[in-house]
Amino acid sequence: MSLKGKSVLVSGAGKGIGRTTAVLLAGKGAEIVALTRSAEDLQSLKEEIGCRTLVVDLADPAAALAAAEEAMPVDYLVNCAGTTILESFLDTSVESFDFLHAVNTRAALILSQAYARDRLAKGLGGAIVNVSSLSSSFGFADHTAYCASKGALDAMTRVMANELGRKGIRVNAVNPTVTLTPMAVKAWSDPAKSGPLLSRIPLGRFIEPAEVGEVIAFLLSDAASMVNGVALPVDGGFSVN
Predict the structure, then answer these.
(1) Are the C-beta atoms of 185 and 226 separated by less than 8 Å?
(2) 76 a catalytic residue
(3) What's the CATH code, domain 7-233?
(4) Which InterPro entries match (predicted)?
(5) Which of 52, 95, 149, 212 has the greatest number of beta carbons closer than 10 A?
């Protein structure tokens, strides 16, 4: 699954799955264009892998579009930017709901449109991977806005795969369960909280960020040349239990 000579725009590349994916893809030969809102995170990533960097607040649609257009041209796109706010259903605010959709769903729309338009104008195909979540299909408590945003991302992925696939651009999603980023390690360190979820995972553990990154690399690569429109669980079997 070499990506030598290919360029990849990775949003949310400053931390977590996005950063791990950017480093992993660079290790497979890709040139990375890294996009996130933290200049400090991007600087450290640039020092690590020598990538191009763009600082942007993806909750701002005009800024997101400007950054996407500045990033072009690239061969592939990974929409990994995401955030969450934990609120019960009855306490979920309109502001939280709108913010999570802006970052988790709308930003992927804006970046994908800019990418696809650039590729099609050049008569080229390509591949997009949207980093979704198992929350798109399961109603986890206190995740109303997050689950809704990821469900919308999966739905959008299917439409993108249908329309863009006919033009030579494959679109897929990856749907991990709890992934052990530093933030998640802290959030799920209490066995009383993690135990019930772990008991539903046949493989008996949460996901390492690199395990998600390897699936993303596969979906971008020619090894997945006929994979289009899937929402691929990376969950150790949680979905079958």
Answers:
(1) no
(2) no
(3) 3.40.50.720
(4) KR_dom, L-xylulose/Carbonyl_redctase, NAD(P)-bd_dom_sf, Sc_DH/Rdtase_CS, SDR_fam
(5) 149
224 and 218 Cβ atoms separated by less than 8 Å: yes
- Catalytic residue among 28, 150, 186, 193, which? 150
List C-alpha distances in Å: 49 to 21, 55, 182. 12, 17, 20
pLDDT tens string 133-170: 999 999 988 899 999 999 999 999 999 999 999 999 99
Q: Give the global pTM.
A: 0.96
Contact 156, 170 (CB under 8 A): no
Rounded Cα distance, 184 and 69, in Å: 32
- Cα–Cα distance for residue pair 111/106, rounded to 1 Å: 9
Are 202 and 174 within 8 A, CB to CB? no
Catalytic hit among 4, 76, 146, 193: 146
Distances from the Cα of 152 to the Cα of 108, 127, 155, 194, 224, angstroms: 11, 19, 5, 26, 24
pLDDT digits (tens, 9 = 90+) for 66-111: 999 999 999 999 999 999 999 999 999 999 999 999 999 999 999 9
240 pLDDT more than 80: yes
